[in-house]
């Protein structure tokens, strides 16, 4: 099956979100997610990127969404797949995997 190479975006900040004090940092969550998804989908290409919400980005869409995270007080990290929020604050691997499966990815 032909599938689109998904881009998974993890929006966050160096400082832990005030409502997420006992949770891992955004960067730690990004690293964990990258490792976990690589194990679940080892031969299926996808891109995962970390976007700091307090920095400007080359892509206007990333800068605009980072601004939205701040303005709407979303709990970060915020995980986005195809412009859809699939995790916020303490993202669940099961939910992210289920979203990837909608695009033809299969757990190996």
Structural overview:
The protein has helices at 26-40, 60-71, 93-101, and strands at residues 6-12, 46-52, 78-81, 84-88. By secondary structure, the protein is an alpha+beta fold. It has a 4-stranded mixed β-sheet, sandwiched between helices. A hairpin with a 2-residue loop joins strand 3 and strand 4 (84-88). The model has no long low-confidence stretch (mean pLDDT 90).
Offer a few descriptive terms.
108 residues; four-stranded mixed beta sheet; alpha+beta
In short:
By secondary structure, the chain is α+β, with helices and mostly antiparallel strands. The protein has helices at residues 26-40, 60-71, 93-101, and strands at residues 6-12, 46-52, 78-81, 84-88.
Helix content: 25-40%
How large is the count of helical segments?
A: 3
The main sheet orders its strands as 2-1-3-4
Please identify the oligomeric state.
single chain
H and E string: EHEHEEH
């Amino acid at each position: 099956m032909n599938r689109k190479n998904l881009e998974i975006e993890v929006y966050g900040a160096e400082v832990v979100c005030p409502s997420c004090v006992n949770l891992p940092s955004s960067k730690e969550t990004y690293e964990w997610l990258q490792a976990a998804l690589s194990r679940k989908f080892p031969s299926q290409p996808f891109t995962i990127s970390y976007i700091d919400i307090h920095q400007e980005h080359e892509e206007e869409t990333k800068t605009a969404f980072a601004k939205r995270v701040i303005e709407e007080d979303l709990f970060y990290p915020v995980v986005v797949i195809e412009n859809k929020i699939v995790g916020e604050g303490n993202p669940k691997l099961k939910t992210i995997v289920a979203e990837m499966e909608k695009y033809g990815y299969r757990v190996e």
